[in-house]
Amino acid sequence: MTIYPAVALLLFPVLLLLIDLGRRLRDRQPQLSGNSAIEGAVFGLFGLLLAFTFSGAVARYDIHRELLTREVNYIGTAYLRLDLLPEQSRPALRQLFRDYITSRLNLFASVGEEVSPATATLQHQIWDRSVAAASSAEASPDATKLLLPAVNDMIDITSTRQNAFNMHPPEIVFLLLLIFSWGSAFLAGYSIPAERRNWVYSVAFSLAITITVYATLEVEFPREGLIRLTNLDSHLIALRDSMK
Asked: Is 243 exposed, middle or buried (0-12, 13-18, 19+ CB in 10 A)?
């Protein structure tokens, strides 16, 4: 299930409401005092959960960048090894490689297929033509040993990237994050005595949690929010422009 980062922005008014609800409950029972041990445990668990979720999201964000760099390297290596093929086979394959790079652009621009039909078609064409050309008598003896493994790596990395796009924590983690944020807001409001009521602290607390959760979801789902990796397409474009 995809969780859109914009949903996190709805946390802000809810947290403010829960802080106020906790404060009102405390006002009705002034004889009761908060339990610092329970409050510390809840806030500590919430902070730990938030920290691990954010660090995991950043790690997966870095994986996306690393896999794209690897794909660029694989395509570039396979393209250079086309020189092992007969002269008459190279122009058509080189054009297929340029078309293939075009089909791999904009994967972070919108939610869609990681391996598009155009990409799959070009993969089959490149593989079939490479096998046929590498097996011809005019090809270099090393063509099958060097070119075909490079083309295979170029194709396999697309499946790896597809799996990376679908790799997220279990939904229960995000549910716990939501529940703990609500509970922390309520306890924060309950711990504020009536005579010390200050909206600045309530707004700051709610805003801090909302921004952190929002940033976590932005990094975790780089194709649904504002933080995207579209700038990394420049590596693919530069490689395509270098293919003469």
From this structure: middle
